[in-house]
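User: My instructor asked us to take a sequence, write out its structure as tokens, and then describe one feature of it. I'm not sure where to start. Here is the sequence I was given:
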Amino acid sequence: MCFEPQSREQGDEKNPCAEVASHPGSVRFVSVEGGAGAFDALPPPGVDETVIVAQALGEQSSTFAVRAVEHVAAIERSGRVIAPAVLVPVSSLDRRLLAARAFVARALLTHMAASGSGELVLVAPGLDAAARAELLSLRESLLEEYANRGVTIRLQFRQPAAQPEVSRDAGTGGRSVRRNFERLSAAKGERA
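Assistant: Let's start with the prediction itself. The structure tokens for your sequence are:
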């Protein structure tokens, strides 16, 4: 599993996830907007690696979106395929955030469509009614834009059913994905 650090020193261009991109196979890509709850599900069978890109506290939405899309491009350049992709949004109607979310979603869908198939899951438990409506609107426009291109777009408004605590997967080194998300969430809270 690769966690993109939530912040980098100015001028530090070293990508700690670069070694992940050098391994062949499929990637589950998870984009977590700042303030969103932790995504709490184990990778589906057949996924070799999970890459999580989380928005740093105080990071502009546009900067986060560009960083997420850079990861998509790096995965694509390595010959790997993203399937599935997960976006974990926050309850916000900020136009810049909505544009950044759409930008990331389109990059992911374009990558998956080029590879012939894939699924984008918008995971949104706990969103308020206005944010849900906005997410539905985004989904509808993406469905229209990517019709007949081999990709699906799914909304998930509930947390997935309880998962086993530990996944024995080479990508997690025997640690549970849930524990990694807890660490990510704890680190996010410590920086607040």
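For the description part of your assignment, you could build on this observation: Residues 95-115 form the longest helix (21 residues). Try explaining in your own words what that tells you about the chain.
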